Amino acid sequence: MTIHYPLPLQTRIVEATDADEHANNLTNWEQRYDQMTAGVFHGLLEELQLPHMQVFRESTSQGMHQSCCVWPDAVWFGLPYSAQATRINGRVAEKDAIMVRPGACEFELMTPADYTIYGVVVRLDALQNAADRGGYALDWNQLGRTERVHAHPGLRRTCVHALAELLQPMAPHNEANTAQQCVFDALLPLLDTRAPDAAMPTSFARRQRIVAKAQDYVREHHDQALTVPALCDKLFVSRRTLQYCFEDVLGINPMQYLRIVRLNGARRHLRDAAAASKTVRDVAADWGFWHFSQFSNDYKKLFGHSPSEMLRQRRH
Fold first, then answer.
1. Contact 2, 25 (CB under 8 A)
2. What does the alpha-carbon distance between residue 245 and residue 254 come to, in Å, rounded to a whole number?
3. Do residues 199 and 148 make contact, with C-beta atoms less than 8 angstroms apart?
4. What Å distances lie between residue 201 and 91, 205, 206, 237, CA to CA?
5. Which of 13-17, 94-98, 298-302, 311-315 has the weakest average pLDDT?
6. Nearest Cα to 165, choosing from 279, 39, 11?
7. CATH 2.60.120.10-classified regions of the chain
8. CATH class of the domain whose range is 202-315
9. Where along the sequence do coiled-coil regions lie (predicted)?
10. Long-range contacts formed by 217-223: CB under 8 A, 24+ apart
């Protein structure tokens, strides 16, 4: 269920009670969300569209594994507002970090429960023009390959405060260009005074590759009741190596990942109108769950409602 609230000054607020529905609410993004922690999902998106940028605040009640992609010729900056760390492509973004990713480039986030993040997506040419006007030097080579910018804590707090003010429903930003300049004024000092991100260790890059291969294999063989030993055989790695890779990159063990990613796949399948003729048992089998009662119990524990309830919601 999605609830839309019409608000003045182009501020948009959308609530959702399903992770994928929430992922689709962010304008012009390509996203897929897997719920990682147990409980009913609630998502809140507050979004403001400006001439050359998008500003938003996103809140999610459950831990999520997010696959994201921003539109081309743009760059995304993410400022987490949470006590717990975020992982971007497996790397931990510390408390004062700003996450950075270019457009048309898929990236992954692991976010904890009760999470809020501020985001800015801005066209590259508009960002460069604003930097030139303000006398800021941007290192595009660094921004293009980094995932984390280490920001001065005070400047970061100032930026978050400016974004929060703009996103207030009755904020005084009647003139869009003025609001946009406020964002540039808060964001550019962070990029101009950044400290370089540490180079990715070779060992971590190898673990990223192993996890990516495992994820691809699980998606391609989702109808099979995969086990960790079987996955190790397919990837030619030991069980201990696979364990280290998943814990280092995603913060969970391979067995948890196998169960959660298939449960999220079944949830999507149950929501899909194209699968209207399928029963819950059919969907469970399609995702490698052969013990139906265990599937139903695990599904309800993770999402807070039974698979049959999800099916009834779709049909109505």
1. yes
2. 9
3. no
4. 11, 6, 9, 20
5. 311-315
6. 11
7. 2-192
8. mainly alpha
9. none
10. 218/257, 218/258, 218/261, 218/262, 219/261, 222/262, 222/265, 222/286, 222/287, 222/288, 223/285, 223/286, 223/287, 223/288
> Under CATH, what is the fold of the domain 2-192?
Jelly Rolls (2.60.120)
Which tokens sit at 125?
Answer: 């040419």
- The mean-pLDDT minimum among 86-90, 144-148, 202-206, 287-291 falls in 144-148
Q: Which two tokens stand for residue 271?
A: 């929501």
In tens, the pLDDT along 62-93 reads 999 999 999 999 999 999 998 888 999 999 98
Look up the pTM and report it.
0.88
List where CATH 1.10.10.60 sits in the chain. Answer: 202-315
Instruction: Report the SS3 class of residue 125.
Output: helix
Residue found under tokens 């931990």: 92
